Amino acid sequence: MSPVNPLLILPALATALLTTSAFIKISHRKLTEVQYKTIDGLRGYLAFFVFLHHSSLWYFYLHTGTWSEPPSHLFIHFGQTSVALFFMITGFLFLRKLMQGKQKPINWLRFYMGRILRLCPVYLLVMIICFIVVLSLTQWTIAGPFSAYAKGILQWGTFGITGRPPVNHTFFMDKITAGATWTLIYEWLFYSSLPFIGIIFFKSGGNFFIVLISAAILFLIFYNNLIKPIHFYSFAIGAAAAFLVKKEKLFSRPGNTPFSIVALLCIALTIHFFETPYEIVPLTLIGISFIIIAAGNSISGLLTLKVSRTIGQISYPLYLMHPVVLFIVFRFIFGFGNAAGMNLYVYWIMISLIAAFTICICFLIHFFIELPAMKQITRVTSFIKKWNLRTPGNPGNQRRHMEI
After folding, report:
1. Distance, CA of 191 to CA of 218 (rounded, Å)
2. Which has the closest alpha carbon to 315: 55, 78, 43?
3. What is the DSSP string of 143-155?
4. What contacts 220, CB < 8 A, 6 or more positions away?
5. Are 210 and 196 contacting, i.e. CB atoms less than 8 angstroms apart?
6. For the whole prediction, is pTM greater than 0.85?
7. Distance between CA 350 and CA 353 in Å, rounded?
8. Which of 42, 81, 183, 272 could anchor a disulfide with 77, C-beta 3.0 to 4.6 Å?
């Protein structure tokens, strides 16, 4: 069987769904209520498809020594199309927030604290594990001056906004993270653009401090990173979906089968005819699928299944954590040489076991790190506002400065 045969992924996908189902029964945890349930379910599959993409990438790296995309349109799209859809989701959800700001002003302080507490705790945990792995690979010694080591940690610790250099004079970080963290730079680029989008397109007021901080983050991102404009198109499609979904007549029955077929057909055409989605035509096809899903189409009920939505709610830790688990397994448990000598079927059975183990870890991260941090959003926001008002020289009426 070819190393890129689609049948190889079925055991891993089945294992992931069974593990999630078992966790649902054991934990008796209720799903977090969200407004867009189909997007909730979509997220989980996207994160898992990225896992499959990196699993295939690792197979060829172990056998060829070259870290490059797998020789398969399907396995390439598992990674790249999933990322494009993640960007569309971001564009959709946060443009909806700006649109809703006409009825209820946006509290920008709360918005950014929400993003920080949503993204930072899990990311920092993953980075700590990565730094420990790097140290173990360099025999627990710091190569060169400590200041250079500390600078590298700081740069990675800020989501790579200020760059993603080698840590401790090694290039292992690219393998440990599988390069997955690059997408977070674009996420923060979009978040930092929102105040300006609100001012320009929604005629919303702005707070000088928020605008200044946003501008500074944008400058750091563009100064320290090579930004590819094609990814802006994905965010733009998500933003367009925010307007189109508002027009209910466009999808009067979004849950019916014909729309599901159109959505799946657009994805199939993209995978078959295009090696990469990062072009206008394939992104447009993917965008059509996304708009249908954002409008409420569940792909014949698949995306609103409890198991689908449950994986969706651990999608962020799953996205960040799986490359680290893959690296640790291949490097420390099996060793690169032994892993390369595995039979193809044995390799994908091992990937299935790694999938189950990773999902279990991500559930623990979600319940003990991610959710507790998100529950502190209101408390932290209130504390900062009170502290700011008590600062000498700040007039009492400055409490309105975070509102549009």
Report:
1. 10
2. 43
3. -S-HHHHHHHHHH
4. 161, 162
5. no
6. yes
7. 5
8. 81
From start to end of 185-240, where are the E strands?
none
Q: Average pLDDT in the 127-155 region?
A: 91
Whether the predicted pLDDT of 394 surpasses 60: no
Which residues does 31 contact at the CB level (< 8 Å), separation at least 6? 306, 309, 310, 313
Give the pLDDT confidence score for residue 74 in this predicted structure: 97
Sign of the Cα pseudo-torsion (132, 138, 139, 142, in order): negative
pLDDT tens-digit map of 201-258: 887 766 788 899 999 999 999 999 999 999 999 999 999 999 988 765 555 455 578 8
328 touches 133 (CB < 8 A): yes
Segment (H or E) for 325: helix 315-328
Q: Are 91 and 235 in contact (CB under 8 A)?
A: yes
Distance CA 207, CA 228 (A): 29
Q: What percent of the chain has pLDDT over 70?
A: 93
- Which of 50-54, 161-165, 266-270 has the lowest average pLDDT? 161-165
Which position has the token pair 């990196």? 54
Of all residues in the chain, the percent with pLDDT exceeding 90 is 74
Phi then psi for 391, rounded to 5 degrees? Answer: -70, 130
